[in-house]
UniProtKB/TrEMBL annotation:
Single GO MF annotation: branched-chain amino acid transmembrane transporter activity
Keywords: Cell membrane, Membrane, Transmembrane, Transmembrane helix
Compartment(s) where it occurs, according to its Swiss-Prot or TrEMBL record: Cell membrane
InterPro entries: ABC_transp_permease (IPR001851), LivM-like (IPR043428)
Matches recorded under Pfam families: BPD_transp_2
Residue stretches spanning the membrane: 32-50, 57-78, 98-118, 125-145, 165-184, 217-237, 249-278, 298-316
Topology in the lipid bilayer: Multi-pass membrane protein
Lineage of producing organism: Bacteria, Pseudomonadati, Pseudomonadota, Alphaproteobacteria, Rhodobacterales
Primary location recorded for the protein, binned into one broad class: membrane
Tree of life domain: Bacteria
Protein name from the UniProt record: Branched-chain amino acid ABC transporter permease
Length: 342
């Protein structure tokens, strides 16, 4: 218990410190980067809840982010704007205008409901079959979002969302997501799910309902993703279905893989490292192009370096930077080692 509290305190301190640092700099760009990073952290923590505890890679996570973002948008766009933003909207929804703070929660709940309705049969699958079906689910969600013009404005940009997500709202949501991920990990469901991850046959032999456990984790992960998507939507205020597909999936997966999918610490640290690296590489790419160092424009440097970093981590440390132990356990162990040395 002490180790878990220490982990929670250390990771919370890192998150709050990042927010304070961004605010202290007084530069709008840094606040935007930090806000986006906290939204990404919610998504990564959600993915860790399912992938880290079940051991099954899921590509569908970003699809649920889109469900949350569009749900919150439809319910919060001012009535006077809906005629322009969503010309084909169903009449019953035209006069609906709720507080964006309420729709952020509703967006998460709708994403969780969609996950509950679609995913139960998929939870029977393991290994490559589970990965392929999760990718297929992402394709299904993306296709529906792209072509359901009445709700999403089709492939065109949806605009008019009220701006509601601030640096500290995103920071607070990230802290709640951290608490939720830690509580789930130490819950009976989380512990049994990890037991099934380590030995599926043995877990089933003692009566563990693996399908039910995976389903619960998947729904919780979708809730995190839906809330993250809604927060992001009320931060950028306009977006299109392209924001919820492969590029974002790759970024979120790289954060979790580099940090360590099996630990909550890995999810948080991975998000911090990849965000700073991503922004540094984007700055380097822009600097090279502005200086005219190359004859042609440099495009894709950020993605290539991130992909190589992910390959390197998977080759050298397959479990990521924090493969098995949370940071609280590592700090406690070091303290005990120092005590024995004295």
């Amino acid at each position: 218990m002490t180790r878990n509290i220490l982990t929670l305190v250390v990771l919370s301190a890192l998150i709050v410190a990042a927010a304070l640092l961004a605010q202290a700099m007084g530069v709008r760009l840094y606040e935007r980067i930090a806000t986006t990073m906290f939204v990404s952290m919610i998504l990564v923590l959600g993915l860790q809840v399912f992938m880290g505890n079940s051991g099954i890679l899921s590509f569908a996570h970003i699809g649920f982010m889109g469900v949350g973002a569009y749900t919150s948008a439809v319910l919060s766009i001012p009535e006077r704007m809906k005629g322009m933003a969503l010309p084909d909207l169903y009449p019953v929804l035209e006069s609906v205008q709720l507080s964006p703070y309420a729709t952020i929660i509703i967006g998460g709940l709708v994403a969780a409901l969609v996950a509950a309705a679609l995913s139960y049969p998929l939870m029977r699958l393991s290994d490559a079959a589970a990965v392929i079906t999760s990718f297929a689910l992402l394709v299904v969600l993306h296709t529906v979002i792209t072509h359901w013009s009445a709700i999403t404005n089709g492939p065109r940009t949806l605009f008019g969302l009220p701006e509601a997500t601030t640096l500290w709202l995103a920071c607070g949501a990230a802290l709640l997501a951290l608490l939720g991920a830690m509580l789930f990990k130490e819950s009976r469901t989380g512990q049994l799910l990890r037991a099934s991850r380590d030995d599926e046959v043995a877990a089933a032999a003692i009566g563990v309902n693996i399908v039910q456990l995976r389903w619960r984790a998947f729904i919780l992960a979708a809730l995190f993703a839906g809330i993250g998507g809604a927060l992001w939507g009320h931060f950028v205020t306009s977006f299109s279905p392209r924001a919820f597909y492969l590029k974002e999936t790759f970024l979120i997966l790289s954060m979790l893989v580099i940090g360590g999918a099996n630990t909550v610490t890995g999810a948080v640290i991975g998000t911090l490292i990849v965000t700073f690296s991503f922004e540094a590489l984007r700055g380097l790419e822009a600097g090279i192009n502005e200086a005219g160092v190359m004859a042609d424009q440099v495009i894709g440097l950020t993605e290539i370096v991130l992909a190589l970093a992910m390959i390197a981590v998977l080759s050298l440390r397959p479990g990521g930077l924090f493969p098995t132990r949370e940071i609280g356990a590592l700090l406690t162990r070091n303290r005990k080692s120092e005590g024995r040395a004295k």
